[in-house]
């Protein structure tokens, strides 16, 4: 089998429906042998009924509790049979026919690339950043507090956000440190070296961690703007005051995950992409 498409979902069946229909439309004339897998956290009855009635051909893996992104994807990876895995969140919509096949074609021609991510758009047709440089501990602090408004904070965040690269529209593939986990393609054989997601991260930084392990195993992480997809992204964790960092649940999880990441990889600044 050439391709396994893995969709991570949590309690938004209407959004999931749009995602699955867009995937099927994209793959309709691909000529590839492929499968579609949905991993569902904290499954609700509405989702179960929709999958059974509208998508009986899709492999549906429910979970009684919210088990987290990394664990959810790892369960699907163990079931997947494809040579390539395309991993997306349920809030991705593909409106460009043949986009997934185009990504496979690029990876087949570039064996040095281990992870590939498309260009993402917000639903209001504005560009959404999905490629970044690696965090430093200060990047987390600058993003979470007023210190990000200082001159040194802005400089750090501009580097993290690759402002020097994305000041102009990027139209050709470029190597980047890491890709947002909303949409990424990898090879099954590369996971024999890299492994799956680190399940110690319940939320946030699991994609940063995974990309870093790809680089450390000699495999490039590449932003691929020749294919675009829509991402209905709601940012639950926002930068702001110390108060928000403490009392916003998602911001706290983000900080906690960053601590796990730096404990694992150390504090040394690294850069692999442009």
Question: What does this protein structure show overall?
Answer:
This protein is α/β, with parallel strands linked by helices and 274 residues long. It has one domain (3-265): Spore Coat Polysaccharide Biosynthesis Protein SpsA, Chain A. The chain has helices at 13-27, 45-54, 69-79, 99-109, 137-144, 151-160, 163-166, 191-194, 206-216, 242-247, 249-265; strands spanning 3-9, 34-40, 59-62, 84-89, 92-93, 113-121, 127-128, 131-132, 174-175, 178-179, 183-187, 220-231. The strands form 2 sheets. Strands 1, 2, 3, 4, 5, 6, 7, 9, 11 and 12 form a 10-stranded mixed β-sheet that branches. A two-stranded antiparallel ribbon has the order 8-10. Strand 2 (34-40), helix 2 and strand 3 form a beta-alpha-beta unit. The longest helix is centred in the C-terminal third of the chain and has 17 residues, at 249-265.
Brief description of this entry?
This protein has 274 residues and is α/β, with parallel strands linked by helices. The protein has eleven helices and twelve strands.
Largest sheet: 10 strands, mixed
Number of strands: 12
On the 0-100 scale, what is the average pLDDT? 94
Helicity level:
25-40%
- Work out the helix count: 11
Overall geometric form: globular
The CATH topology label is Spore Coat Polysaccharide Biosynthesis Protein SpsA, Chain A
Secondary structure: elements and pairs:
Layout: E1 3-9, H1 13-27, E2 34-40, H2 45-54, E3 59-62, H3 69-79, E4 84-89, E5 92-93, H4 99-109, E6 113-121, E7 127-128, E8 131-132, H5 137-144, H6 151-160, H7 163-166, E9 174-175, E10 178-179, E11 183-187, H8 191-194, H9 206-216, E12 220-231, H10 242-247, H11 249-265
Helix pairs in contact: 5-6
